[in-house]
Amino acid sequence: MNDVLADLTPTEKRHPAVKHALDTRSALALGNYHRFFQLYLDTPNMGAYLMDMFVGRERLSALSAVCRAYKPDVRLRFVTEELGFDSDEDCARFICEHGAPHLLDERDDGVHLMTGKGPGFFDSALKAASARPGVKAPV
């Protein structure tokens, strides 16, 4: 892969699809989930189909980072926007499908993700997801 990247000409690197792919690779390599999901929502051509193959894994990794960085909780709306979900319902469904409905708390001001109760939980979910065929753990 590095040899192919080294052989790209400056003109090729400026092509929108190639630039997007390089930016995505950089965001993944740096663990920059914020940038990764911005790129996911603005994918040229049919690149989103490729990204769909590993976006779930990256969401689990990002949820783990959110749980370590924000305590004791965050609004679900924040998580929805940061992780590129279409709606709060989709975000909550993803969290529940990965066995964490207990981390969601409905309040007067909306649903919150109880990050203080979640450290390590999404790491375990990521390991479990990565153990499935066709899903690779992040580098």
What do you see in this structure?
This protein has 139 residues and is mainly alpha-helical. 59% of the residues lie in helices and 7% in strands. It has helices spanning 2-6, 10-14, 16-30, 33-41, 47-51, 55-69, 76-82, 88-97, 121-131, and strands at residues 74-75, 104-107, 110-113. Strands 1-3-2 form a three-stranded antiparallel beta sheet. A hairpin with a 2-residue loop joins β2 and β3. It is elongated and about 55 Å long. The mean pLDDT is 90.
Give a quick summary of the entry.
By secondary structure, this protein is mainly alpha-helical.
Please state the structural category.
mainly alpha
The number of helical elements comes to 9
Which regions are unreliable across 5 or more consecutive residues at pLDDT < 50? none
How many distinct beta strands?
A: 3
- Multimeric status of the protein: single chain
* Major β-sheet strand ordering: 1-3-2
